[in-house]
Amino acid sequence: MSASVNRQILLVEKPTGKLAKSNFKMTDGKIPEPKDGEALVRVKYISLDAANRAWMQGATYRAAVEANTVMAGGGVAEVVSSKAPGLKEGDLVFGDTGWQDYAAVNAKHLVKVPKIEPMTHLLSVYGIAGLTAYFGLLNVGKPKEGETVVVSAAAGSVGSIVGQIAKIKGCHVVGIAGGKDKCAWLVKDLGFDAAVDYKSEPVFKALKAAAPNGIDVYFDNVGGDILEACLSQMNNRGRISCCGAISAYDGAAPAAGPRGIPGLIVVKRLIMQGFIVTDFYDQREQAMADLQSWVKAGKLKVQEDVISGLENTPQALIGLLAGENRGKRMVKV
Q1: Does the predicted TM-score (pTM) go above 0.85?
Q2: DSSP states of 208-268 as a string?
Q3: Which pLDDT score, from 0 to 100, does residue 174 have?
Q4: Residue 186 contacts residue 164 (beta carbons within 8 Å)
Q5: All structural domains of the chain
Q6: pLDDT tens-digit profile of 272-300?
Q7: Engineered SS bond to 219: which of 36, 74, 112, 151, CB 3.0-4.6 Å?
């Protein structure tokens, strides 16, 4: 092994308001020794996700990240040495490697991934982002041809793929994003039918114009006011796929959540369902086959935002929470 130091980024203090660089610290640790059942992996790319911020607030679908521990995060890594059956030196894996150069991880928590070029696609279209979009839209939202699908955070890693899959399935697709440039990109490059810029126009009114026949499926990445605006325009028997609530992750809690939900759900017979991508892992092979065929046919465009250097990971996450990225943001370690 060429290096003898394991650079690590620690969460030194849990944020009380907005996330800041001062919440993190870079330190040099030891390269761990894998125990029985573990593999030592060298991290290649770290996935940045809005959920990283939610993990600092408390337990979610995983334990909370505690102060003075290595910041948690998914990554694509190469096996350096293995004490686990089924994994050997040189294998590529995905798992919760944390923000560091090397990690010793129980093989049960690692997923072997194919060697694909570019490797970055293993975190974007063929990784958590693509699979979240695929299952959240098709298995939870269940869009039918001709229906109207609305997706928030539409220029982000998941939203940009959701909208494109909805178009492949023959739907009228409206994206909600922040900024004129992002909205123009959604329509011109990704083929959305319309885009609403929540930063410059009242969402409710703009949505009414962009989705005149109401909304059949709403893919929610943000919660808050935008969820409220979409709820009131849902059609009878509409489906809401709840993927995230980025509006409530960073900083003070929002003053009010969506109002009027119970009445609307009853009157319109809406289905509102939260999900986590791992719920559907038994169907991964089919999802991967579909995603790969769509990319190959040019029906699904992959947009990535790769930032170099482990030391830049905190700032890259802060930027992601502020909506800087277009497509999947990740760090090349």
Answers
A1: yes
A2: HHH-TT-EEEEEESS-HHHHHHHHTTEEEEEEEEE---GGGTSSSPPS---SSHHHHHHHH
A3: 98
A4: no
A5: 5-123+303-332 (3.90.180.10), 128-278 (3.40.50.720)
A6: 999 988 899 899 999 999 999 999 999 99
A7: 151
